[in-house]
């Protein structure tokens, strides 16, 4: 006998990034069209553009929470712990026995390998992030750690939604985070995938990504409480095209969006706005344009946030999902940065200004290495 699945709502969120500490601070910077990306010099002959934290600020925030011993934790652990702290503090009624913790990251504490000679530190293992957070907040259920390239944060939301729909838990705290290490930076430099200026998503002169650091968190629940946002459709798909290059026809992204629309029982015409991956690499942006055209979405207002944050990897899709939700809740369209002259075909409708618009459905997409693709649809219940 078919059992109706309970609706899953977004109850609360938190963004901690160089752009701003807390979601509200981030929104204010986006409204002012400010970027956190700066030039960083490694030496006289080597520099790169990225959005990096002031480590002293992280330490200061940590010291403000007296029950934390800052020296015990890595930089990424501090950011994730601070994120969880904010969500739990603002939602004290959440029963942690009924809550699953999901952590999304692409690299974890990989920087610890640089100081290790012949052994692999325990903290390098991805599952250690979840165990650290579980221990300090006394989560009863064993955490889930996910790593699926650049869609990791979105996949965390999908897994959380599905677990709640199956009534395995009542709540889910989904975290995403990554910091920049020599390993990450050198890898993208070798791929020649980094712009030598602030990145320009979808622009004809785009040259590649900027790197970014961030952490983000979302509280999901089958108890609506005060929430106005419901996840009504989601999917992931893999185009299996190439380890570092997407399908030129957008095959995987088309499949992911189509499946999300089917679950939501929506036609593409129902979508009011898009938050796309928009990395500013040649192939990603071109692939997205083709995928959106195949689904007749190319005329929808589209925002890429990479020129605000850089590419924050495990946090990226989660941050951009939060911003999609805020766009719905505040009845505004947030502007993209960096696209002065459109450089993809078909031509996309890049959102250039902060604009008031009442919307009901927002689509978030992401794509990543290995051919992975993610799509999620959010519904504003107040705009029925």
The second-level CATH architecture of the largest domain is: 3-Layer(aba) Sandwich
Oligomeric nature of the chains: single chain
Tell me the overall shape: globular
Helix content: 25-40%
Structural class by secondary-structure content? alpha/beta
- Tell me the radius of gyration: 20 Å
Total DSSP E strands:
16
**Distance, first to last CA:** 30 Å
The number of helical runs is: 10
The major beta sheet can be summarized as:
11 strands, mixed
Which stretches are low in confidence, meaning pLDDT under 50 for 5 or more residues running?
none
* CATH topology type of the largest domain: Peroxisomal Thiolase, Chain A, domain 1
SSE series: EEHEEHHEHEHEHEEEHEHEHHEEEE
Portion of residues in beta strands equals 15-25%
Mean pLDDT: 93
CATH homologous superfamily identity of the largest domain: Thiolase/Chalcone synthase
CATH class type of the largest domain: Alpha Beta
Q: How many domains comprise the coordinates?
A: 2
Question: What this model shows, in words?
Answer:
The chain is α/β, with parallel strands linked by helices and 384 residues long. It has two domains: 8-221, Thiolase/Chalcone synthase (Peroxisomal Thiolase, Chain A, domain 1), CATH 3.40.47.10; 231-380, Thiolase/Chalcone synthase (Peroxisomal Thiolase, Chain A, domain 1), CATH 3.40.47.10. It contains ten helices and 16 strands. Strands 1, 2, 5, 6, 7, 9, 10, 11, 12, 15 and 16 form an eleven-stranded mixed sheet that branches. Strands 3-4-8 form a three-stranded mixed sheet, with no helix packed on it. Strands 13-14 form a two-stranded antiparallel ribbon. α2 (55-63) packs across α3 and α3 (75-90) packs across α4. The longest helix has 16 residues, at 75-90. The relative contact order is 0.18.
């Amino acid at each position: 006998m078919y059992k109706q699945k309970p609706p899953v709502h977004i109850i609360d969120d938190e963004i901690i990034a160089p752009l701003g500490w807390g979601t509200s601070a981030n929104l204010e910077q986006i409204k002012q069209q400010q970027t956190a990306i700066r030039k960083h010099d490694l030496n006289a002959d080597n520099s790169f553009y990225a959005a990096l934290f002031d480590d002293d600020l992280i330490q200061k925030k940590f010291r403000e929470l007296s029950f934390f011993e800052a020296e015990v934790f890595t930089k990424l652990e501090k950011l994730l712990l601070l994120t969880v702290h904010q969500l739990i503090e603002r939602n004290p009624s959440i029963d942690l026995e009924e809550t699953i913790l999901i952590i999304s990251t692409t690299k974890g504490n990989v920087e610890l390998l640089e100081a290790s000679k012949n052994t692999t530190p325990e903290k390098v293992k991805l599952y250690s992030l979840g165990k650290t957070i579980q221990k300090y907040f006394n989560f009863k259920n064993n955490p889930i750690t996910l790593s699926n390239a650049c869609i990791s944060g979105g996949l965390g939301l999908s897994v959380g939604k599905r677990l709640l729909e199956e009534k395995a838990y009542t709540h889910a705290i989904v975290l995403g985070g990554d910091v920049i290490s020599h390993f990450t930076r050198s890898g993208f430099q070798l791929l020649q995938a980094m712009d030598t200026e602030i990145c320009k998503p979808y622009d004809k002169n785009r040259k590649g990504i900027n790197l970014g650091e961030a952490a983000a968190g979302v509280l999901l629940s089958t108890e609506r409480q005060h929430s106005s946002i419901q996840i009504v459709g989601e999917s992931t798909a893999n185009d299996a095209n190439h380890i570092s290059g997407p399908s030129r026809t957008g095959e995987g992204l088309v499949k992911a969006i189509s499946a999300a629309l089917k679950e939501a029982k929506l036609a593409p015409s129902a979508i009011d706005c898009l938050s796309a991956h928009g990395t500013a690499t040649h192939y990603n942006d071109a692939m997205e344009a083709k995928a959106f055209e195949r689904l007749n979405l190319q005329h929808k207002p589209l925002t890429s946030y990479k020129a605000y944050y850089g590419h924050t990897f495990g946090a990226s899709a989660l941050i951009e999902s939060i911003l999609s939700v805020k766009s719905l809740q505040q009845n505004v369209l947030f502007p993209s940065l960096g696209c002065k002259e459109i450089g993809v075909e078909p031509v996309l409708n890049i959102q250039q200004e902060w604009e008031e618009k009442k919307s009901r459905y927002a689509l978030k997409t992401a794509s990543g290495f290995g051919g992975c693709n993610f799509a999620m649809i959010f519904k504003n219940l107040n705009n029925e």
